[in-house]
Amino acid sequence: VTRARGRRLPAARAYGVAAAFLVAATLVSALVGAADLNPLDTIAALLDKIPFVHLPSSLSSLDRAVLFDIRMPRITLAIMVGALLSVAGAGYQGVFRNPLVDSGLLGASSGAGLGATLAIVYLGQQGPEVVPIAAFAGSLVGVAIAYLSGAVGASGTATLLLAGVAVGLFLTAVQTYIMQRSAQDLQQIYSWLLGSLSGATWSQVSEILPYAVVSVAIVLLHGRHLDVLSVGDEEARALGLHPARVRLIVVAACALAAASAVAVSGLIGFVGIVVPHAARRLAGPSYRLVLPLSLLVGAGFLVLADTLARTVVSPAELPIGVVTALIGSPVFIWILRSTAAVRT
Amino acid sequence: LIPRICVAAAIAALAAAVLAGCGSASTPSASTPSASTASSPGSSPAAGSSFPVTLTAANGSVTIKAKPLRIVSLAPTATEDLYAVGAGPQVVAVDQNSDYPTTAKRTSLSGLTPNLEAIAKYSPDLVISYQDANGLVAGLKKVGVPVLIEPAAATLADAYAQIDQIGQATGHLTQAHQVVTTMKARIAAEVRQAGSSHQGIEYYWELTAKPYYSVTSSTFIGQIVGLFGLKSIADAADKASDGGYPQLSPEYIVKAQPQIIFLADNQAADGGQTPAVVAKRPGWSVIPAVKDGEVIGLNDDIASRWGPRLPQLVEQIAQAIERASG
């Protein structure tokens, strides 16, 4: 049970803060970029898209293309990826009763990395479209292997977690080996591994939308179960819960969420671990609040990180993983220090 | 977590090396490799039969005692140069990326991370590479094998000088001169035909996608396209630390409105960014080059080397310019 020394907000205010953060991040992100669009015209053009609102905007057709075909799909994808990674991270933390767990756990990231590397090296002939599919499949296969290796009897979470670490290291070793054997593809593999939302499209958004909705809905519906699980398997059983079954369902949903995110963004670390802690700092340890708050805060956090990634060294871009770690680490330490004890 | 970060750092270092090797000409000794014979200074080459010969390459002064008969090339450009000047029969092994000419004796040797023992196994009497990695020069010096480092050319003159130097090092100076003369004539003819005053046309040269790396007008490639008067859209984005190869965001590229796009990453092995793929990139349909069908898929290998096939690249560029301005 967490005891926070810092001020904890009532649920409604916590939701308000998180939602305001997401809206503010989105607005800032829509207004800045290498193309230097006029801010007032940009706001007008965006508001004009709302049904029954008609605002004149003097954006040229070129500027409109930049705003609606390049910038907005990217922001939308950042919202989705941030939400998916954060909800998956929070879900895993609940399942494993361990605050160090993140969305890349159980071979999810390493499986995706291996899948993408295999696709780049051996399926390059098929074109760049196969990489996200391979990453998606690799991520799910990685989790499946880890789960099957670790789920022996009803031995609880520690074995599963350790098996996940072992499978992850193994898959990363295979991936590194293949990468070293194909120097020509290094640049492509490397930029995929570091993660990026550059080149986001509306079709990417619609492709991952069904997986995102289903996986997030399943995890959110299990908030109460995760709260019960947090008191221990024995006690959960006494309260009529089937711990192994809850774990399997939530792990599967988290794996699907993380795989959908990874497929379109590559590997983006730190979001899945720092955001749930920020949510706890806002509203306390109950997963009924931590999960939906993680969704909002995570979406805002990744939009903000991607905005920095594409503006700080403009017109060049930073890998988004660099930004999430650079701002995530100090924020994370501040959260830890402002919370008396973090036990989940 | 920790292993992944370590791996990522190692990858970052490696990838930086790859990028440097592929594109930039920022080698330690960026001086033009000037060939000079010690034994017969200034004399006209008597079929290049003058050995021993001392040459000044990027790794300093190199003496080759006798005509080399067991050459190992660790650089795709050097391999093309060797075969073009007629030294092919003297080559015993080329690196894994030396895919042209197809008759070259391709092995698993690597110029990026050379393995000294694997190279020594071929008992070479001359090794040519594009960079001195893994202690290549010092290591082979211990076993008495001379090494020529022929780094990425910064200018066309550099590229010609390297061909001459490889000709001289292998006893084929006359043929090397002929190769260079022919190249110069073909390139001059292309420039004459397409015209050299297309200052109004701006182009985007794509080295890689995700992220988009490009070239400025002052790079080797930029100078070649500049023969026709064109300017790169990357010029305004260049920072000192980019070395002429800045990274560009898609917003910047779309906003810059290039009239021609050259893709040096369009073949399947290099990312498969074909003109069709580029046309489907979000927002790119408003770029004049995309609207007018002036997105040119180059032969990536020729476009990333500085060897005897350069005239083919110039020809492809010239054709695009003629269409765009016609």
Main attributes of the structure:
heterodimer; A: 344 residues; 0% strand; globular; disordered N terminus; B: 326 residues; alpha/beta; four-stranded parallel β-sheet
Report the C-alpha radius of gyration of chain B, rounded.
Answer: 21 Å
Can you tell me the residue ranges of chain A where pLDDT is under 50 for at least 5 consecutive residues? Answer: 1-5
User: Which oligomerization state do the chains in this entry correspond to?
Assistant: heterodimer
The computed structural class of chain B is alpha/beta
Averaged pLDDT of chain B: 86
Low-confidence stretches of chain B: 1-48
Account of the protein in words:
- The complex is a heterodimer of chains A (344) and B (326).
- Chain A has 344 residues and is an all-alpha fold.
- Chain A is 73% helix and 0% strand.
- The longest helix of chain A has 36 residues, at 61-96.
- Chain A is globular.
- Mean pLDDT of chain A is 88; it is low at 1-5.
- Chain B is α/β, with parallel strands linked by helices and 326 residues long.
- Chain B is built from twelve helices and twelve strands.
- The longest helix of chain B is centred in the middle third of the chain and has 22 residues, at 173-194.
- Chain B is elongated.
- Residues 1-48 of chain B have low confidence and may be disordered.
- Chains A and B meet through helix 3, helix 6 and helix 7 of A and helix 1, strand 10 and helix 8 of B.
Quick structural overview:
The complex is a heterodimer of chains A (344) and B (326). Chain A contains 14 helices and no strands.
